Amino acid sequence: MLDDLIQQLPTLMDSKSNPLLYLLLCISAIMENLIPPVPGDAVTAFGAFMVGTGKLHFFWVYISTTIGSVIGFTFLFLVGKLFGKELLIKKNFTCFKKEAILKAEQWVQTYGIWLVLANRFLPGIRSVISLTAGFSNLSTYKVLLFSFISSSIWNLILIYLGYSLGNNWLTVQSKVSHILSQYSKAIGLLLLCFVLIYFFIKLKKYVAKK
């Protein structure tokens, strides 16, 4: 259903420079963090497509999506900070399973603030990282700053990508989805390599102590 809605975006929003479109882009970026199935990146790519058709301005698409991304991250960060690990695990929310939270906590403990910087480039686990960062001993100032930097860089790349792929929405949507899919697989493989290397080093140190 979400894919059908994305494909119909141009017909649903046949308007020139409508400020509500910027608001929609901002809201979609927020909701992508709060409800991971929401295809925020695809909607951002649509904003880039609208820039290419001259209906939206590059700067405001960039600003609205980046603000939305930071707001979404900050909200989950504060939820994690206010409610803490134990309550979140006990609730075992559909979008934030216990296993995902515990795994993200290990990553935060291992990579610290740098995981927040890489957050937007890690599709599928962005939201749980935001949540976990909240109950970890990380500087709030640094977390929010690195979240802003991460969102700024990612959205700039995504908007430029959507803008440069052409002026046919279905083509742009298809190409962006394919690129993001391949990117997700590559990131997943890279993370697996990091995990294997990490445990190999730990095992090597353990054996050396013996």
How does this structure look, described?
Helix 4 packs across helix 10, helix 5 packs across helix 9 and helix 6 packs across helix 8. It contains ten helices and no strands. The protein has one domain. The chain has 210 residues and is mostly helical.
Kindly list the characteristics that best describe this protein:
mainly alpha; elongated
Topology:
Layout: H1 2-7, H2 9-12, H3 19-34, H4 40-52, H5 58-91, H6 98-111, H7 113-117, H8 126-134, H9 140-164, H10 169-209
Helix pairs in contact: 3-4, 3-5, 4-9, 4-10, 5-8, 5-9, 6-8
Mean pLDDT: 75
What is the string of SSEs from the N terminus onward? HHHHHHHHHH
Assembly category: single chain
Low-pLDDT windows of residues: none
Number of DSSP-assigned strands: 0
Termini distance? 56 Å
Query: Measured on Cα atoms, how large is the radius of gyration?
Result: 19 Å
Question: Biggest sheet, open or closed, and with what strands and sense?
Answer: none
Gross geometry: elongated
Which bin fits the share of residues in helices?
Answer: over 70%
Strand residue percentage: under 5%
H/I helix tally: 10
Number of individual domains: 1
Question: What's a concise summary of this model?
Answer:
The protein is mostly helical.
